[in-house]
């Protein structure tokens, strides 16, 4: 997940650096009126956007495969390395139950 998030971060940083170098008189650009953005989607870089989505899906799929593989083959990390004790063999004293004649 970290890699898939960092791909988008690198994309936005590179766009910002490119845009910062093309400003005239170092005037800030308002994102609401910038011609590069359409409503809810980036209309200028459709192919590069698709590449980032594919890369994020690949890294996310690998992360899920790794998690499920380790869960299946190394499940002792979650459930422990020791046998679970049989509670039917415990005495009342071990369970904290007072004796019947206790007042």
TrEMBL record:
Keywords noted in UniProt: Electron transport, Membrane, Mitochondrion, Mitochondrion inner membrane, Respiratory chain, Transit peptide, Transmembrane, Transmembrane helix, Transport
TM annotation in the entry: 52-72
One Pfam assignment: NADH_B2
Membrane topology summary: Peripheral membrane protein
Location of this chain's protein in the cell: Mitochondrion inner membrane
Broad class of the protein's primary localization: mitochondrion
Record bears the keyword Transmembrane: yes
Reported function: Accessory subunit of the mitochondrial membrane respiratory chain NADH dehydrogenase (Complex I), that is believed not to be involved in catalysis. Complex I functions in the transfer of electrons from NADH to the respiratory chain. The immediate electron acceptor for the enzyme is believed to be ubiquinone.
Subunit description: Complex I is composed of 45 different subunits.
Family: Belongs to the complex I NDUFB2 subunit family.
Protein's name in the database: NADH dehydrogenase [ubiquinone] 1 beta subcomplex subunit 2, mitochondrial-like
């Amino acid at each position: 997940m970290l890699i898939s998030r960092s791909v988008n971060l690198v994309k936005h940083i590179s766009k910002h650096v490119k845009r910062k170098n093309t400003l005239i008189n170092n005037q800030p650009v308002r994102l609401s009126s910038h011609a590069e953005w359409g409503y809810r989607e980036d209309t200028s870089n459709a192919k590069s956007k698709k590449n980032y989505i594919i890369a994020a899906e690949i890294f996310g799929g690998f992360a899920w495969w790794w998690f499920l593989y380790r869960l299946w083959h190394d499940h002792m990390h979650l459930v422990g390395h020791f046998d679970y004790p049989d509670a039917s063999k415990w005495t009342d004293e071990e369970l904290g139950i007072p004796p019947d004649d206790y007042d």
